Amino acid sequence: MKERQATVLIPNYNGMKYLPACIEALFKQDTDDFDILVVENGSTDGSAAWLKEHGIPTLYEKENLGFAGGVNAGLRAVKTPYVILLNNDTEADPGFVRALLKAIRRSPRIFAVSAMMVRPDDPGILDDAGDGISLPGWAFQRGTGEPASLFSKADDVFSACGGAAVYRMSALRETGFFDEAHFAYLEDIDLSWRARLLGYFNRYEPSAVVKHYGSATSGSKYNSFKVRLSSRNHIWLLYKNQPDWQLLMNLPFILSGCLVKACFFQRRGLLKDWAAGTAEGLKGLDRVKRVDFSRVPPSRCLAAEWDMILGTVEYACHLIRRGKD
Description:
Blueprint: E1 6-12, H1 19-27, E2 34-41, H2 47-53, E3 58-61, H3 66-75, E4 82-86, E5 90-92, H4 96-104, E6 110-119, E7 122-128, E8 131-133, E9 139-141, E10 155-157, E11 164-168, H5 169-175, H6 187-197, E12 201-212, H7 224-241, H8 244-267, H9 271-283, H10 298-321
Parallel strand pairs: 1-2, 1-4, 2-3, 6-12
Antiparallel strand pairs: 4-11, 5-12, 6-7, 6-11, 8-9, 10-12
């Protein structure tokens, strides 16, 4: 039997509302050169029973390990050269797998390739076209809420979005898997950043299209759980992937960004959650593993700095196009 080239890995926690459509879309792919593996993260909504009933290959965890822990459990079981991470609240177009595999095979230095994620109610509007990073350390979804036609060309991106992207397994073994201390949020940016410091790069492929419902696990775009974890992980993201000199250089931008975030979440009644997460991040720096910068050429840190400068401009242009302040 021919060995499959990819494993589509789907972490699931209480995603029964979306999971059947997600799996069904994979059965309709125009290639069979992949396996399916679900990591069932201790759901309580009947997901486990449905997966067993339909014979879907699944790893059953006793508790919710978060996105990072759940995906890592799956990655340790993957035997194929590539792995495609896919959120449970997605529906992939028929050419999704084929397009991602074609894109990542173009160069052995490609770490990951991010798909075009669109809104299910209006596929002409983007949800994500790969992820960027700005000088304050804010990660952002490229093109979210904008016409998909504006992002119709393949391009380099700072980070692949772990919700729909293909990764090279040999490179993942070199970088290490997702940092489980993050639990959820920004772990994909962290991983892509580490890969870039090792000399890899990431791509965006618009011909790999997937509909994404969004926030299926956390429940909403802004909530106490998500804000606390994201603010904590923001601190860890910057600390882990920048040497001291770069952190010092960017400190004015980081502090300014924190002030803006504090005002933003104060207006939404989530200031205490943001502050608690930020404090937890600062107190817990010893919980995370920092990049060994003695093994990273300064030129790669400077390249990441340039990416943050470009990302700041790109994010500002995005806000202007959407008419937001």
